[in-house]
Write a structure and sequence with these properties.
CATH topology of the largest domain: Glutaredoxin
Largest sheet: 5 strands, mixed
CATH architecture of the largest domain: 3-Layer(aba) Sandwich
Number of strands: 9
Order of helices and strands: HHEEEHEHEHEEEEH
CATH superfamily of the largest domain: Glutaredoxin
Shape: elongated
Number of helices: 6
Radius of gyration: 29 Å
Strand content: 15-25%
Distance between the termini: 89 Å
Structural class: alpha/beta
Strand order of the largest sheet: 5-4-3-8-9
Bound molecules: copper (II) ion
């Protein structure tokens, strides 16, 4: 066989038969669909792995926080209606807890708005347990019961505003490792309370489960709370 003819034969064997008239219909579509299905399966697998990793990370974090014994013990405060409130009253409920003061110029309003958004997001999902939002003042001198009543209603109808004596507030903030310190008063007697900023999640056993700093969005917090709800097992019974 002459080399040229041989090459031609080889080329014909390797390349698909020329078929300009054949429509590229079902064959190509089926292949594309197969590829897409494979891609989706891989994507779902990857998302599943990521979700599992996230759940494991969250479990380990909850375990570490539990060992740190944050928020252990009870508290004794009063809500914006003047009713006494203890931590045990919230047994069986998920709680989002935030510490601040009503004269706070921007951070506390922002964080409480975010807290309310998280609660609204979770409320909108059928089948999820209710979350109780709580705001504890770090400025009991100015934030008495009526001041708390005026303040909390702007954020969420179910937001509880807790206050108490200076000792009671000191006790609950110590328990949650919340730092606060009142600054010097200005000429009008107004002052700023410097304080740590975090939203705490308590599970239905009343145990400190997670916390969220300022950098976390309402969406991220709601997603984390949802994951905690999905994996929660009561250790009391
Ligand atoms: Cu503040």
């Amino acid at each position: 066989m002459p080399p040229r003819a041989w090459l031609r034969l080889l080329a014909r064997a390797r390349l698909p038969a020329p078929s300009p008239a054949r429509p590229r219909g079902p064959g190509l579509r089926a292949r594309l669909l197969t590829t897409a299905a494979l891609g989706a399966a891989l994507g779902a697998g990857w998302l599943g792995l990521r979700a599992e990793k996230e759940r494991r990370r969250q479990r380990e974090r909850a375990e570490a926080l539990r060992r740190a014994a944050v928020g252990r013990g009870d508290f004794s405060l009063r809500d914006q209606h003047g009713r006494p409130r203890r931590k045990a009253d919230f047994r069986g409920q998920w709680v989002l807890l935030y510490f601040g003061f009503t004269h706070c110029p921007d951070i506390c309003p922002d964080e409480l708005q975010k807290l309310a958004q998280v609660v609204r997001r979770l409320e909108a999902e059928p089948g999820l347990p209710a979350v109780q939002p709580i705001f504890v003042t770090l400025d009991p001198e100015r934030d008495d019961v009526p001041a708390m009543a005026r303040y909390v209603r702007d954020f969420h109808p179910r937001l509880l505003g807790l206050t108490g004596s200076a000792e009671q507030v000191a006790e609950v903030s110590r328990s949650y490792r919340v730092y606060y310190s009142a600054g010097p008063p200005d000429v009008d007697g107004d002052y700023i309370v410097d304080h740590s900023i975090a939203i705490y999640l308590l599970d239905p056993d009343g145990l400190f489960t997670d916390y969220y700093g300022r950098g976390k969005s309402a969406e991220q917090i709601a997603a984390s709370v949802r994951r905690h709800m999905a994996t929660f097992r009561s250790v009391l019974s």
